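FW: tagging you since you asked about this chain on Friday. Here's the raw sequence from the shared folder, copied in full. Didn't touch anything.
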Amino acid sequence: MRTVKIVLTVAALLITALSLWVSHRLTRDLEQEERNRIRIWADAMRSLTVADENTDMTLVLSVLGENHSIPVIVTDADGNVMETRNLPKRFSDTSDPQVAADIRRQAREMKQKGRVIRINLTDDGAHTATSAEGHIYVCYGESLMLRRLALYPYLQLGIVALLVGIGIYALLSSKRAEQNKVWVGLSRETAHQLGTPISSLTAWSELLHAAHPEETLLDEMDSDLERLRLIADRFSKIGSAPELQPTNLPEVVDRVAQYISRRTSDRVQMRCSYPSAEISARLNAPLFEWVIENLCKNAIDAMAGAGRIDLYVFRSGSHVVIEVTDTGKGIPARHVRDVFRPGYTTKQRGWGLGLSLAKRIVEEYHRGRIYVKRSQPGVGTTFAIELPA
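HL: got it, structure written out here
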């Protein structure tokens, strides 16, 4: 995937450079051609200005009439407009003082850009006359073709960038879909493989209850078996749309906190904070409990088995929020965006699937959001989950 991205980027840069170079050459050539045409047109305008009754104006008028694309403003030495050609329609009413002022402003802008030819009316071939009297200015702008040609490379580059972006997005989507199929298949296969030993253990538990009805330790065994059934049920639901039901969120979080507390070291303190009013959200309780459980287990690993985990549940606008805060080693800033990526893990043993599956459960199944709210190395990390209330 990295190689494909590099190839697409290099190809896009080469196309960009080639397009800009070709466009620049074409624009420069067309600009020079238009300037030559305006020089001929200016000579024709000079001939028309100094002509007498004996001058044959056929060729002159033909040259002047051939300009249908290049905007031209002819002014005298004082800047007064003498003639206009091919200006936009808004400049058609020259009797309007505001329009006349706009035309003069356009002529000044053309002069500032160097798009002007000065014609001496008293000296043939004198486009470079320096006298302030006896000459006119032929100011000209860019033709529509030249403006379009100047904009064309940017349009082309936009299309190329769009196509490259679509290509990269399609590749990433394809890779993500392939990864999802792998995780879903792995989850369902895990649930299937757990089914047989769970059924066997359930049968043995019933036999033990019949043989030793007074044994209290069998109740703990049944509790663990129920936990295994719950885990298998969770994995079997990955990849299919779970049923969501209105659920009191503090009760779900409290069940997870009690389960984690019973199965972790006394050096880990679990503290829960809930509002007095009920906070309800549409959940699939078994799957969502797994998300909270996964965050708590990661927090215990980050704290090396000693520290404090705080769970907060509160309402924020149209959402309910669950925050899981630990006092662990924290996450370096450069890795914060990678923690939900499948396969990413800092543990020596682990597949890096926990947070990836948690993100899928929260965002795809519950239409919520899970993210690292804050993290500071050596201080701790806070994960936040937002769900529609």
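FW: The longest strand covers residues 307-316.
HL: agreed, and The helical segments are 2-50, 58-65, 97-112, 144-211, 217-237, 249-262, 285-302, 354-365.
FW: great, closing this out.
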